[in-house]
Design a protein that fits this description.
With about 290 residues, this protein is of the alpha/beta class. It contains nine helices and seven strands, in the order βαβαβαβαβαβαααβα. The chain has helices at about 15-25, 40-55, 70-80, 105-135, 155-175, 205-215, 220-230, 240-250, 270-285; strands at about 5, 30-35, 55-60, 85-90, 135-140, 180-185, 260. A seven-stranded parallel beta sheet has the order 3-2-1-4-5-6-7, with helices on both faces. α1 crosses α8 (about 240-250) and α3 (about 70-80) runs parallel beside α4. It is globular and about 55 Å long. The mean pLDDT is about 95.
Length: about 290
């Protein structure tokens, strides 16, 4: 069944791949991105060309997750054009690399704003619509770093993704009685097919960073090379987009709560299985089994 979908952060990476794959599957997909007439104009044109070539409904839309005004305008446009919204995909995010101590508090706060608080901005505008219609899907793009292997020099990003994942878990229970479903997709360490590492931010305190680099020389290069070696051949970021299509295409009421796409297998799935089972068991113990 054709669904109306908004994806945040859809200019590149998982967002762009998922937008194209969902459109090819027959959905109406709004690829949210900021600066559509400026920095991301090439991405807008690429999406429009893809839509025309493949005769699909892939529609770039201005959507800055750090602006309530921008989010409201985007959602209003979708409703005006389609009369409904079925899926919101929280994909927007930003990565930083470097020793944790070298990031200023303001930098860490900014990272949380992009990766965590932005989802709250979007939810407060989208969820009233989904709750009123008593159906819909909130699809969160988490990270295997939340419960899996965590190499050094990625601490602020890992902490932010963990915060977003925790928010998703709580929302899942709170939305259940409204008929709104939650699915959390957990990508592993894809070193190609996304711009996470290429566009990563760096710490502002160069002096502290230099002290750490004297003890951990070329650490990120080592991590990147080892992560690439761990991934089996053919492990492209498209695997995540393919799984997104499966989740969205699954009939309402049967969608999975959490799905891992982690070719390198950093252990996240094993830990998540235990954590999610514990959550379900605890909800049963306190008389809230219907929220599982």
């Amino acid at each position: 069944m054709k669904q109306v979908i908004i994806i945040t952060g859809a200019s590149s990476g998982f967002g762009a791949l998922s937008a194209r794959s969902l459109a090819l599957a027959g959905n109406i997909v709004y690829a949210g991105m900021r600066e559509t007439t400026q920095r991301n104009r090439p991405q807008v044109l690429a999406a429009q060309e893809f839509a025309q070539t493949n005769q699909v409904q892939l529609l770039p839309i201005e959507l800055d997750v750090n602006s309530e005004t921008s989010i409201q305008a985007a959602v209003d446009q979708v409703i005006a054009e389609q009369g409904q919204l079925d899926v919101i995909m929280h994909n927007a995010g930003h990565m930083v690399v470097g020793p944790a101590e070298a990031f200023t508090p303001a930098q860490v706060a900014e990272l949380y704003d992009i990766n965590v608080i932005s989802t709250q901005r979007v939810n407060r505008i989208v969820l009233p619509l989904l709750r009123k219609q008593q159906h819909g899907l909130v699809l969160w793009v988490s990270s295997s770093s939340v419960k899996g292997g965590t190499p050094p020099y990625l601490a602020p990003y890992f902490a932010a993704k963990a915060g977003m994942d925790a928010l998703a878990v709580s929302y899942a229970a709170e939305l259940k009685r409204f008929g709104v479903e939650t699915s959390i997709i957990v990508p592993g360490s894809f070193t190609s097919g996304t711009n996470h590492f290429q566009h990563a931010g760096h710490p502002a305190d160069d002096a502290v960073a230099a002290e750490y680099d004297s003890k951990y020389p070329n650490l990120m290069q080592q991590v990147g090379e080892k992560l690439a070696q761990l991934a089996p051949s053919g492990s492209s970021a498209q695997l995540v987009a393919d799984e997104v299509v499966k989740i969205v295409s699954t009939p309402a009421g049967q969608r999975p709560y959490r799905v891992h796409v982690d070719p390198a297998d950093d252990g996240s799935e094993k830990v998540s299985d235990v954590a999610d089972a514990n959550r379900a068991a605890f909800l049963e113990r306190i008389g809230l089994a219907d929220l599982i």
